[in-house]
Amino acid sequence: MSNRLFLLDKNYILKQAQKDQRASLQLRLMEIVKEGYFLVYNPLRLPDTTSEQVRLFQTTELDVFDELYDILAGIYRYQIGDNQLELLFDGSSHYDKYVTDWTEAFCAYAQELCTKKNFILAALELTVFRSPEKRIELAQNRMKVAIFEHFELKVYKHKGIQAYKSKSA
User: Which DSSP helix (H) or strand (E) runs through 161?
Assistant: First the structure.
């Protein structure tokens, strides 16, 4: 998926940093989703059955967020634009800098997306309220639509990720 989103990306250090952070950031995403649920649907944190299910939910199986993670990783690479290594004078490696920058960006993206009701509901449907009879593809598609609308981007099969064309232009 990530190759389709950003076709000409040659920043292998950033790709590796994003790959290595996948599991920890997906767990962090789940925590951000849970917090977003309370901010949007139960800001007073009044106890009820649904809120308790969300609050107590713990998982290590977050592969349902793999495609979402790849999309956000592609959007990040699209937004930072150039792939030139900068000079670092603090003694850290480029890999360490990319890990830090990507982690901050991912968390910021997740917090922005978790202000949207559709995104929160889809994420909870994929995790907390997941049931075998529901098709997870529908919730994943709703999440993708929310992401692309939020960032005003579109994925084209042969061109990769692109900004929306303005209707007035």
Answer: strand 160-163
